[in-house]
Design goal:
The chain has 402 residues and is α+β, with helices and mostly antiparallel strands. The chain contains four helices and 26 strands. A four-stranded antiparallel sheet has the order 5-4-3-26, with no helix packed on it.
């Protein structure tokens, strides 16, 4: 089987009992704290490499891609609804994106040179990735639809970018000073700073969801281990100590756990441990490669109705329900009408009719578009403060749905 280039200079690392690994990890792309969803990963359990997703305990694994080419390096979007990945090998490797169920796969890059290691910005608007299209390995960014591709680094030895959840920085591995070390830079490519100076291999950075720590892979103690450090490079310490080899870490969105790959059982499998390195538990058992884990962030859903808070009209409904009757121009009748319309909006969202939901919200917003003038006689809220509050919530919901 043809293997991927790793960081250009490192094609394959020999671990234990003849096992090999191809390194690469996805991002921890959630805003702290987040809810832990599924783990996406790459596996060749069904022949060539494809993208899979499973529950965090390893259950309910499902195959998401079925391409005759290899699909690898999965990376969840911050809202957990999409996955970016690489399809193909060598010069044929391109970045794609798909829905979380594997549907609507869309090609984002079309360069004649290989493109690898996609990672989303925390706002979901951009994707950083690795490419050697300029004749030397560098980190690039593009809009989430593939437009606006631009190079950030120019040393020729930079790889595996990881966008910080705070959106301000990108961590990456670089051999620009001779050894592979971990660096950070501003999201626009300025202000590069070296964080590790080990004479060994320091690669594959992964941010904690609060942007305060980085886990990474290092062989400074002889074999590959998972290490952790503060975001400024201080406090470097190992989390794993197994002699067989551990690599490719990914934080859970709530910051409590880290997924990683280990060869300790003679095969590349995915494990999960607490963020302090305790309770290391194997979660995949296929007799093939399972690697490149990336953890899905689930949007907050306070009422558990399946609609994230950011898209849930119940957030507005709760405010309406809490207002006194005299806040409404028509008393309880206007409260009932308001809540009825919000119920219709929620049904449209649940059915996937976002355009219909936005249209209904725009109509409802006209009922709270002013206060105290003759032109605003149709306002359902007589209380001006309540109008501003509800109008702001409706505007935000419209923006989120749009």
């Amino acid at each position: 089987m043809q293997r991927r280039p790793f960081l250009v200079a490192l094609a394959v690392l020999s671990l234990a009992a003849g096992a090999t690994l191809v390194a690469g990890a996805g991002p921890a792309g959630a805003t702290f704290p987040g809810a832990n969803g599924k783990i996406a990963y790459a596996s060749d359990r069904d022949g060539n490499f494809e993208i899979y997703a499973m529950n965090a305990d390893g259950s309910s694994a499902s195959r998401l891609t079925t391409s005759p080419d290899d699909d690898e390096f999965p990376a969840w979007s911050p809202d957990g609804t999409k996955i970016a990945f690489t399809e193909g090998v060598g010069d044929n490797a391109e970045i794609y994106a798909m829905n979380s169920d594997g549907g609507q796969q869309t090609r984002l890059t079309t360069n004649t040179a290989p493109d690898y290691y996609p990672v989303w910005s925390p706002d979901g608007n951009k994707i950083a990735f690795w490419s050697d299209r300029a004749g030397a390995a560098g980190i690039y960014t593009m809009n989430a639809d593939g437009t606006g591709q631009a190079r950030l680094t120019t040393t020729g030895n930079d790889s595996t970018p990881k966008w910080a959840p705070d959106g301000r920085r990108i961590a990456f591995a670089s051999a620009c000073d001779g050894d592979w070390d971990i660096y950070v830079m501003n999201a626009d490519g300025t202000g590069e700073q070296r964080l590790t100076t080990s004479p060994g291999l320091d690669i594959e950075p992964s941010w904690s969801p609060d942007s305060r720590k980085l886990s990474f892979t290092s062989d400074r103690d002889g074999g590959l281990r998972i290490y952790v450090m503060n975001a400024d490079g201080t406090g470097q310490a190992p989390l794993t100590t197994d002699a067989a080899g551990d690599y490719s870490s990914s934080w859970s969105p709530d910051g409590s756990k880290i997924a990683f790959v280990s060869v300790r059982d003679g095969n590349n499998e995915i494990y999960v441990m607490n963020a302090d390195g305790s309770d290391q538990t194997r979660v995949t058992t296929a007799p093939r490669f399972d690697y490149q884990p990336d953890w899905q962030s689930l949007p907050a859903d306070s009422d558990g109705d399946g609609i994230p808070d950011a898209r849930d009209p119940d957030v507005i409904g709760n405010v309406i329900s809490a207002l006194p009757a005299d806040a409404f121009a028509g008393g309880g009748g206007h409260r009932t009408a308001f809540l009825s319309r919000l119920d219709n909006v929620q049904r449209s969202i649940a059915a996937g009719d976002l355009a219909g939901a936005v249209s209904a919200l725009q109509d409802l917003r006209r009922k709270v578009d002013g206060c105290g003038s003759a032109a605003d006689h149709d306002d359902w809220l007589a209380d001006c403060t309540a109008q501003v509050q509800v109008r702001t919530l409706i505007d935000q919901l419209i923006a989120n749905l749009s």
